[in-house]
Design brief:
With 445 residues, the chain is of the alpha/beta class. 37% of the residues lie in helices and 11% in strands. It has 16 helices and 11 strands. It has a 6-stranded mixed β-sheet.
């Protein structure tokens, strides 16, 4: 009996070893050199979709081969001489040049646009005449193919973490600080930011530490960060500094649905209350119904200042805005926000925005093989006001006429591009300017 059991054990062990050996052999067959799969190495280049960056993000050549969404394999390049073989062409909105497009456009070419900014620097961006020529978009709008609405929020834990939060009693002890903090060096925006804050300063003390309306110097520890702003959006030193203030002005440079930048998320992470103006849909993305102060709810900067002073005098009312920090059972009640953070394809802190865009377009190319219809984008993919929009204030916004003219010229540019794209021939900058100047001269722009 003992011998029989011992032999059975060895048989089971032998079977296990055989299975392991088989699996190792299978792995060697499937695995090629440099860690590439057997399928990847042997798949013909003509079968693999080629995707060309028309507006490269950096100087110099770029080529990559990648498997996206586990099974979709694509090649990516910046080499324009590969255009004939391309399945899709990628455009980065901020780098688009008015006279540089892959024309004539072939029927099989998919045009894909990524743009995380407002139309401040690309005023023809919000118009249907321009957007309708793209099959795939990635913008801040929830209606784009790969939305970037929460792109500037790294993860939900940052909202709930008490790392930088300072209790209200300690905030009040910083008597050298104003109630309100404003740090901004991008002045003269199309949202009337400087004008509004300047008027607010008449009714409440505001510490302005950026180049716009500057009345105090940044601490030395933050001056280096300010010099490299984009790489230090969430620097611990900056968040610790913000946390000392009860209120932080979070005022976007443009008004677009779902256009929400670090200006909104940073105060929430630091444990201060954002005073927000920008996206009309901001309440769809706030952690809770009562997480920020909406400038739109006040008839003037004066009435806003009165409310801020009331909150300053009432600790319970003030702390009601910080449930995402203090409510341990349910810090965030916004299901839309939680769902988006769980399912989104990209996040800024991973540094993978453009690779995520590449893979999203790659998957789109494969999905089209099973579909007859290739849809086109529309204004819903980039929902921005077509003219300057400002909150209610007593004074007239100083740059309204300038921005109205800029956006009106942008509308004309979008219309001209639409006409030239439909002509489907290359055009020069001189040709474009000639058409634009004529429209301006006859009052169409």
């Amino acid at each position: 009996m003992f011998l029989h059991l011992n032999v059975s054990k060895w048989r089971r062990l032998l079977i296990i070893l055989i299975i392991i050996a088989f699996l190792l052999a299978a792995c060697q067959i499937l695995q090629g050199e440099n860690g590439k799969s057997h399928w990847e190495l042997n798949k013909s280049s003509t079968e693999v979709p080629l995707i060309v960056w028309w507006t490269p993000l950096v100087d110099g050549g770029y080529e990559s081969r990648r498997v996206c969404d586990l099974s979709n394999f694509c090649r990516f390049t910046t080499k324009r001489d590969k255009l004939e073989d391309a399945s899709a062409i990628l455009f980065y909105g901020s780098n688009v040049k008015i006279d540089d497009f892959p024309l004539p456009r072939h029927p099989h070419h998919i045009w894909a646009l990524i743009h995380e900014e407002s139309p401040r620097n690309v005023p023809f961006m919000p118009y249907n005449d321009w957007l309708q020529h793209f099959n795939f978009t990635s913008t801040f709008s929830r209606n784009s193919n790969m939305p970037l609405t929460t792109y500037y929020l790294t993860d939900v834990e940052n909202l709930t973490s008490p790392t930088y939060t300072i209790p209200i009693g300690e905030k009040s002890r910083h008597k050298e600080n104003a109630l309100v903090l404003f740090i901004q060096s991008d002045c003269d925006t199309m949202s009337g930011r400087d004008d509004y804050v300047k008027e607010l300063m008449n009714y409440i003390k505001v510490d302005s530490l950026g180049n716009c309306l500057k009345n105090r110097n940044l601490p030395e520890s933050l001056q280096k960060i300010q010099g490299d702003y984009l790489n230090n959006l969430y620097a611990p030193e900056l968040l610790k500094f913000m946390a000392r203030y009860k209120f932080v002005i979070s005022y976007e440079n443009g008004v677009c649905d779902d256009y929400i930048t670090e200006k909104f998320w940073r105060p929430l992470i630091a444990g201060s209350i954002p005073i927000y103006y920008g996206s009309p849909s901001i309440k769809d993305w706030s952690p809770n119904e009562n997480s920020f102060i909406d400038v739109r709810d006040f008839k003037s900067p004066e009435s806003l200042a009165i409310y801020l002073k009331e909150l300053d005098a009432n600790d319970r009312a003030y702390n009601s805005y910080l449930n995402h920090k203090y409510n341990m059972l349910q810090p965030i009640t916004n299901k839309r926000l939680l769902h988006d953070l769980k399912t989104r394809k990209t996040a800024m802190h991973n540094g993978d925005l453009f690779q995520s865009f590449e893979c999203a377009v790659c998957s789109y190319v494969y999905n089209l093989k099973n579909k007859k219809e290739n849809r086109m984008a529309s204004e819903r993919h980039y929902q921005c006001a077509h003219e300057p929009v400002y909150p209610s204030m007593y004074a007239k916004v100083s740059n309204y006429d300038d921005w109205y003219s800029i956006m009106n010229i942008g509308k004309c540019k979008a219309h001209i591009l639409d006409t030239l794209f439909k002509r489907n021939k290359n055009f020069t900058s001189a040709e474009f300017r000639k058409i634009l100047n004529k429209k301006v001269s006859i009052g169409e722009c």
